[in-house]
Amino acid sequence: MLDFVQNLIDGLMVGSSYALLALGFTLIFGAMRRLNLSYGPSIMVGVFAGTLVHMQYSAGLIAVAAATMIGSAIATVYVERLCFAAVRSGAAVASMVSSFAVWMQIEEAVTLAFPRRTYAFPALSDAPPIYVGELFFRIEYVVMAIVAALVMLVLYAILNRTRFGLQLRAVSQNPVAARYSGINIPAVTLQAFLLAAVIGAIAGFLIAGTDQQITPRFGLWATIKGLIAMMLGGLGSIPGAILGGLLLGVVEAQSQWYLGTEYRDLMAYLVLFAFLVLRPGGLMGTVAVTQDREAARRL
Amino acid sequence: MDDFTISVISNIGLFSFVALSAYLLLLTGEISFGQQAYFALGAYGAGIATVMWGWPLAIAVVWAVAIGMAAGALVALPTVRLRGLYYSIATLAFAEMVRNAFLIFRYRREVDGFEVGPAGAEGFRDIRYIYETGISSFEYMLLIYALLAGVMLLFLLMETARLGAVFRMIGDDPVLAEMQGIDVTRYKVLAAAIAGGIAALGGCLYAHMVTYVEPAIFNVMLGVHALAYGLIGGLGTAFGPILGVIIDIGVLESTRAFSGYRMIVFGGLVAVILIVRPRGLLDETLVHRVRLWLRPAR
Question: Which sequence spans correspond to the domains of chain B?
Answer without folding.
Answer: 3-233
